[in-house]
Sequence to fold (841 residues):
Amino acid sequence: MYRVMIIDDEKAIRSLLRITIDWEELGMKVVGEASSGIEAINTIEELNPDIVFVDIRMPFMDGIEFSKLAIKRYPQLKIIVLTAFNEFEYARQCIGIGICEYLLKPIVRKEIKKVLQKIKEQLDAEERQECDEEIPVSGLSSIDKIKDYLHYNYSDSNLNLTKVALKFGFNASYLSRAFKNETGKSFVNYLTECRMEKAVQLARKGKLMCEAAEEVGIPDPNYFSKCFKKNTGKNYSELRKKN
Amino acid sequence: MVPKISLSFKQWFSSLKLKQKIRYLFLFILSIYLVFYLVMYCFLFSGYMTDYALKNNRNSLMAIGSNLTAELDNISDMSKLIMANNEVTHYLKSSSSLGLRYSQNTVTAIFDIMSAYDNIYSIFVFKSDGTYVHTGRGITLVDKEIMDGPEWRKEIYEKAGGYVIRLNGGGAFTMKRGPFSMEPGEPILSFIRQINDLNTQETLGMLVINIPVSILEGTYKDADKTERKFCYYDINNNILSQGEVPDKLKNMNVSDSPFDQKVIKNLFSEEILSYYHIPDISMVIAGYERIGYEQIISKETAWMLIFILVITGFALVLISAFISVYITTPIQRLVQSMGSVKSGMFKRVSLSLPDDEIGHLKDSYNDMLLEINHLINELIDKEKSIQKAELEVLQEQIKPHFLYNTLDTIGYLALENSAENVYDALETLGDFYRKFLSRGDREISIEKEIEIVKDYLKLQKLRYEDVFEDAYEVQEDLLEVKIPKLILQPLVENSLYHGVRLKGEKGIIKISVYLKDDIIHIVVYDNGVGMSKKQIEDIMTSDNNKSFGFKGTIERIRYYYNCEDVYEIRSIEKEYTEVDIKIPFARGEKKDVQGNDY
Fold:
């Protein structure tokens, strides 16, 4: 089963994609969705998809920016752009950064299936090279350093696994597993927790949500709000009102 | 009648070409010049000439008078010789019984004296008793009856020895034409005086010397011409001169004043009538003179006049030619060149004209054309810009992405929701597009514009649920006011995408329309992320896509109302943005709208 991720700022589109395509028949499974580029780049680590549907026009981080980052991190990732804009400039940029397909809305199931089948064949042909490297013992102390690093640098919205791995001299996927082994949490979840701890403080100080979101390194307040609720069980505004 | 003529003259004159006008003007000036010159000449020069002629005339009269005096002095001398003659004295003193011998001697003596003088016709010497002796060159008849009349003698006595001159001796003497003719001959002047004794002063007799009248004519013969006539009057206003005398001279009134001149002015000539009482002689010399202008105007002055006229005419022709060459012809050429404007061709005039006022006129004209072309181009550009901006907005909006996205949304509704919701969404979509495209009108009522926005937001709510609420606060009486189409929707779209959605919390988009100080305010408020000062400053200058809808909309409003100040953005970062579109409210549209102070 290939893992599929859907990124679109419209919930309806995401849902439509989920329910109109018979994923199982294609040997695929929708493992998650994101409503913005920011959210996607933060959760892609965890979801670990093979195929990504992405819209272009989204707030904070558009589809093209996201694709650039994602392909840099996961060169074998298959990205399908799904947009209502039939613009040459977009198409040109997409080809430039190695996006597989450029599909236009409204959604036509036949087309999507055709494209997915083609991609599936490609994926089948590619040997997935899983690097099963040993976890070096010396890495253990590094995890603490990384944790410290995250506590200091969580406000950097560009902070991500690949970047940190590069900084500390690790392979990204190795670090991912090592981090989880060591801390019991994924890198992304740990970083988000750090950020949310800080966010709670900000909420108590009475900061506006969008200000708090920017300050903790999640410039997309929608995603911030989602994370906040998930981590604290409360809405940001609720917590802010209490003070 | 006169105003009518002057009016039609005015019309006629103003209808003439400039060249013709100048020609007529010059003709007029020339005539005025000529008339003025003649009048000047007549009044000044002819006056002077008349004075001269009068003086001349007087001198002539006096010269003639002295001629006559000299002539009569001769006769007087002769009469003294006769009176002093012994024979004559003897004859006068002798008794009447004395015989013929005395008288014979006396006649001889008189004849001797007479032969020394010219022009004497006959001499009579009367004694007191009426007898007489006489001698002469011809026969003179004597009428003694007239001579005996007291009236006839009275004057002679009174003169007491002085002489009296009478035509034909007052009728007593008549020249006989020939020995056998009974007809009277030439008239004679009788020179009559009393002879007194030198010692006793006793009256002895009377002397009569007859002279032919032609002696008078001899005195003015040299001065007499066709234009100049003279004649003699005696003291009783009888004409003495024989021969041709003009009527005017004949009928002249001679008064007692010693000298008088009278000027009669005619159209082309002057006549001078004058007379002069010759001193010591009871006779008047009268003169008549006619002076024609041809005499007044001398040959030289005539030539000078002609010369001046020719010079003047030449000068006028020269000026006329100058005006023609340097003014009217260039203007005509300019007018011809400018004529192309009539046919809609705004071409510059490229004539080589002198660098004077006309050249400047051409330059100014060209500058004007340049400016006109510039303005036309500007207008065209402006019109193009408006159309472009409108088209761009339409393209931006109609560009099917909104439709496509909405279709997908509705597709989802169909799969997951009730059919009624799907129908509602489709209805809204149809309604939106119908109004949005609105038959290509450029203007739209505020009411319709708001309906478009309502539909738009309703569809957007389907796509981004829970992101925002919309609210409307519209002054009812402004609903019918027309505004440029699609100025509200792009602003609302901005509020949604660049305001509310970026905030992560449920926002509000509020549209208010109200009238304040004759300006319609269309305000789009959202409590989204707000804008920084720099963003507000940059929004009209930057080229990025985000500001595009706004920029195009503002530019359209500016063109449409020809007014720069059409918007205001109020914002606090992270809190709200308020875009205030200010549209001038035309009073004519007001109808029942009432000013509302917000």
Q: What stands out?
A: The first helix of chain A runs from residue 11 to 20. Chain A has a mean pLDDT of 86.
